[in-house]
Request: fold
Amino acid sequence: MKKFNLIALIGMVMILGSCSLDHNTSPNDVLSDDLTPNLRLSAAEVTAYAPLAGDMNGLGNIWTNAWAGNTAQFGNPLITESTLDISTSFRQAMWNDMYRAIARFQQIINVDEPENYPNYIAIAKIQKAFYMEYIVDLYGDVPYTEAFQEQENLTPKYDKDVDIYKDLVQELLDARGLIEENLGNPDEALSVAA
Reply:
């Protein structure tokens, strides 16, 4: 029995001594910090389109009377949408999912080496302006200048809708400038192919 315990102890020491958690990372699991804008953009676009095509499309169809609740039942199932009795709990997925998606575009805009990805940054600025405009149209004053910092600022201040619209126009103008400056940039095309 002593011999078995000794062999088991030696085996455990060898197993624990040979394993290092630093070396057991899978090459298939990429860390978020290692992603470049050319790898982030498609995921950001899909994440942003999902709430637009889902909840926001449904709300638009209700408000334009393309969809209606079954009024033959006791009460209208779309009473909140019909009476515009909108509170902070009204369709929270639209707010949460849109802000999460726009934060992904902001990560592309804030890339460490912007000179290597000007066209991706331009696309991210255009998409950010497009989707942020929906939020401002729907909710009015919303967090913007302090938003998109994720864990660094969990309670961003609300900005006036007029100021946000002005900044969104500036984002579009900046994107246009980036595209014009890098029209036919062969270096960026090569970095995407690699």
